[in-house]
Amino acid sequence: MKSYTEIKNELKQERQSIRYFTRAFLETYAAALETNKRNAEQGIDDSYCDNGIWTRHAWDAVRKTDFYLKNSCAYCTFLQIVA
């Protein structure tokens, strides 16, 4: 994954606001990725339906961040950058 600074710079080029994009958010996101990887390797299915959205418990902490909740447009751009 790209560094915090690289991602932040790309976000700044694409979005007017990158508010709530923090190192803590990126650490939370990276931890969720690692949990998903580990669960897949161990055959653990932590998926569930939350109001019609299929997700995984590994993403719960990400879905509670201010970046996800309060700046969803920039969050979507973030996903494009890290994909």
What structural category characterises the helix and strand content?
mainly alpha
Shape: globular
Question: Unreliable runs, pLDDT <50, ≥5 residues?
Answer: none
Q: Mean of the pLDDT scores?
A: 97
- Helix proportion: 55-70%
Total count of domains: 1
Strand content: 5-15%
**How is the largest sheet built, in terms of strand order?**
1-2
Taking the alpha carbons of the first and last residues, their distance comes to 9 Å
What is the radius of gyration?
A: 13 Å
Instruction: Give the SSE order as H and E letters.
Output: HHEEHHH
| Strand tally | 2
Count of separate DSSP helical elements: 5
Largest sheet: 2 strands, antiparallel
Q: How would you explain this protein's 3D organization?
A:
This protein starts with a helix and ends with a helix. Strands 1-2 form a two-stranded antiparallel ribbon. The chain has 83 residues and is mainly alpha-helical. Helix 1 (4-14) crosses helix 5 (72-82). 61% of the residues lie in helices and 10% in strands. The protein has one domain. A hairpin with a 2-residue loop joins strand 1 (47-50) and strand 2. The mean pLDDT is 97. It contains 5 helices and 2 strands.
Key phrases:
single chain, 83 residues, mainly alpha, two-stranded antiparallel ribbon, 5 helices, 2 strands, 61% helix, globular
